[in-house]
Amino acid sequence: MTLTQLGAFVLVARLGSVRAAADVLGVSEPAVSRAIAALRQHLGDQLLVRDGNGMALTEGGSRLFGIASQMVALGSDAEAAVRAAKGTPARLKLLVSSTIAEFIATPLLEAFGRRWQTSFDASSGVASVAEMRALLPNRLADVALGPDLRGDATSGLVSEPVLKYRIILVTGQDFRATGPPARWPWLVDSSGTDPDSDTGRLLRGFRVPESSIRVFPNQTAAWAAAADGLGVAPAVATLVGRQLRRGELRVLDTELTPAVACWYVTTLAPERRSPAARYLRNFLSTPEAMQLMCSPGTGVSPSRFRPPVYVTIWS
Amino acid sequence: MTLTQLGAFVLVARLGSVRAAADVLGVSEPAVSRAIAALRQHLGDQLLVRDGNGMALTEGGSRLFGIASQMVALGSDAEAAVRAAKGTPARLKLLVSSTIAEFIATPLLEAFGRRWQTSFDASSGVASVAEMRALLPNRLADVALGPDLRGDATSGLVSEPVLKYRIILVTGQDFRATGPPARWPWLVDSSGTDPDSDTGRLLRGFRVPESSIRVFPNQTAAWAAAADGLGVAPAVATLVGRQLRRGELRVLDTELTPAVACWYVTTLAPERRSPAARYLRNFLSTPEAMQLMCSPGTGVSPSRFRPPVYVTIWS
DNA sequence: CACCGTGATAACCGAATGGTTAGGACCCGT
DNA sequence: ACGGGTCCTAACCATTCGGTTATCACGGTG
């Protein structure tokens, strides 16, 4: 399986014709045909089948197409990326939990950028605990902010506490909690599906069945639903201060809440740490960063706003 | 540049040693060394330099590392993906605008799954208008739901209207609109940075300067800020019904709002359409789908909730 | 039916990839 | 300075890849 073979395959799939692909590539038609044949044999699937006056993808071919397109695109990116790196600021890649992504990551990186703009080019992406554990040792990211990732000494990861926070349970003024917590309607964001997150642990602690859980795309939405009296939602105390002051939400105490938890910053062991990771780790202990994590402003100006560079792959 | 060369490079970068990589690969050390040398020459960068008792990545090498890791991983995925495709339901890949992603995509796909679960395996991802235009013709996605993508006849895309909706402007009860709209504080979600989105067009229509725009991670958050009197926010009328009924928000009329707009479904031309795309397109005209788009339930049960398959790449 | 145009296959060939062993250059420790 | 580790390079060889031309098989279309 070669990149050129994959490139030929992608082109044929896109154009729906071997001949046309050969023309575009400027090679003879059998060359393309044989590239496809090699892939067919290697993968044990027809990939492309005759369809009247052209070629159609098989189901297997369609799976391959998405992957191969990515690979080909990455291949041509590689050269450009390496060349562009000369004399360019280093990149800082930050992984964050969903809560931090929603409220803290953007202002934090904005502030970090103001200080180090010339030297670092920072961006962030959401990841589950499992993903963080996989991405950091591989250097696919420099820093993770959120959960404690210790517990596997062999991974070479170092987690350090950054900020304590209180986890509380909030609900609307008119919600009446009846029965045990496991029977309440629970309103959570997508971190509820990550068993290693605060939310996941809380749900497990109360043995909440799946039928009592509703997952919202973000915490703001879950809290809005809670304010409507639809159920209870976990929250970080400092982040719902506004809604509590306005009386939209009230705190509900249980045997497990309020609870104290802690955000951690995780990097590789000091000697393997990237310079960018070093700087961000230090930045997190500055008063400015602390301030931002305690009461982040919501919303940023669009010139500062740059969504993380995601590439969507249906694998 | 070969996949095996990239694989060797990734392994060396990960282990910090040529020798160790050679051991893992079960080949001689010069074999690995020469793979690196070939990449070095091809890309014109040292990529890895001696660093005491091992190898460290140069800036260019670190850029390549992220890309190469992806490529290698995709390469090993490819085989599995093709083999797994045999006798497997077809995949439906849906691109949606951010508004639809936040409120509609999940229940819609959930309903679609209930009807066709055995035959289709549907998932969705957020994309900007530009991304949709790029991904659909390449068959990296089957269907786009949201903006009208016509206007470029050569692309082979077909957009059909699905549902009319009203764009309104909402604000808190105590917000006093003074001066021209361009001077108001505008609270938008990330689609405000997509010039082809409804929000982007509205902001351009009022010539709102960037300094007056605050970008929130999602619309629910922007509306919550508007309810706090922090400014005005665009909204789809049917989606803020709850907040309007509760009196948290009120409608603000302007020369450009209320405006009527329309969601479109976009696919390839009928003869190039995938079967999955055909089915979803038909499903969208059913009463069930219409109902969902007009008043989507918020939140889904976690067993139904499967986040889209994202792979984060810092390119 | 004969005639296109399409894709698959065969036979051949140059070039590169990827592997080996042997030896040189370098850093680091004692 | 020496030995032991590392990485780089050179010379050699088998294999595969990617290209060609020629030929066959198939499906519409006149």
UniProtKB/TrEMBL annotation, chains A, B:
Signal peptide: none annotated. It comes from the Bacteria. Keywords: DNA-binding, Transcription, Transcription regulation. Coiled coil: none annotated. Gene3D superfamilies: Winged helix-like DNA-binding domain superfamily/Winged helix DNA-binding domain. Residues 1-58 form the HTH lysR-type domain. It holds the Pfam family HTH_1. Belongs to the LysR transcriptional regulatory family. This is LysR family transcriptional regulator. The lineage of its organism: Bacteria, Bacillati, Actinomycetota, Actinomycetes, Micromonosporales.
